[in-house]
Amino acid sequence: MFEQFSPDKMLQTPFGITAEHLRKLGKTTVLTDLDNTLIAWDQLDATDEIINWFTLLEEEGIKVMILSNNSEERVARVAKVTNIPYLAKARKPLAKNFHKALERLDSTPEETVMIGDQIMTDIFGGNRQKLMTIFVRPVKETDGLATKFNRMMERIILKQLSKKKSMKWEESL
User: pLDDT (tens digit, 9 = 90+) per residue, 22-36?
Assistant: First the structure.
């Protein structure tokens, strides 16, 4: 039962993922969460690290899109500075906006990676769409109110998963 919540990889941070790593895995497309995956949930603006990472991926031919459950205003603020397409109010783990993102990027599930900091939304949603999923440590230890319940469930799920398979945080793909 818990396998559908199991990430393919667990990384300390998404910023070590390179186009070369992705191509070796046959991946050409990255869908990434925003809050606590790339920046703290309560930080307004994109960092230089995010801008540089997106730029490097795109220069190397990797398609990138932000797929966030947060508001249009919140996600657009970061997307505008990074010049990255986005879908806000995505309602992950529901399938609709995963499909919309793949369609907009002209990508298939087989060539796409979903990166996120939440098992219940990012990883479960990505797994349901047959994407490779990469679970990253949250940027910030605290969460908004809406995420606190998910974190509680996440701890239970990770505990069960770790009984069945080796789960360890890695530095890179």
Answer: 999 999 999 999 999
